[in-house]
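Handoff note, outgoing to incoming analyst
You'll be picking up this chain. Sequence as last confirmed:
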Amino acid sequence: MLREHIQRRDALGLEVQDVMKAGKLVSDELVNQLVETRIQEPDCRNGFILDGYPRTVNQAKVLRRMTEQYGIDPSVVHLVVDHERLVSRLSGRRQCPVCGTLYSLFTNPPKNPGVCDLDGTPLVTREDDRESVIRERLAQYEEATRPVLDYFRGAGVATLEVEGAGAPPDAIAQGICAQLGYCGRVISN
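Most recent structure output, in case you need it:
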């Protein structure tokens, strides 16, 4: 959601752009407001997936209140991935600045190195995919986000641990769906 605002260059995008480029987290209040606004949209009525939120215990508490308010029975999926593997994977991402297509130098490289397959535009490395920024985000994760898992477990929210590397994304997604089904959640494709 934040990247969409940055691409639109609206007031919110301009406000958070420098914060994100530095690998810092956007304020809880702002992110909570964005999430609450988004989950009220019609396409979220039958459920939704949040990726990268909540990142702090404060955000988790606000989300828990929101899910209770809207009658949502949440589940948490924790993808467990070695940090060095994450640094390698994320720092190897490239994006077309014109069409937005994402490439991975390791798993989905462009046909011609450094050039978008779709429109021939030179690919760029996003500011938040620089190694120093990734390492800063991972350090912040350990400090602020890890306690979120403990909070949800303590609140009785179904929390699943899923190996997030070593298998193709589709296989990981199928495993998550299977586990959520096991927890009594209704899963549809």
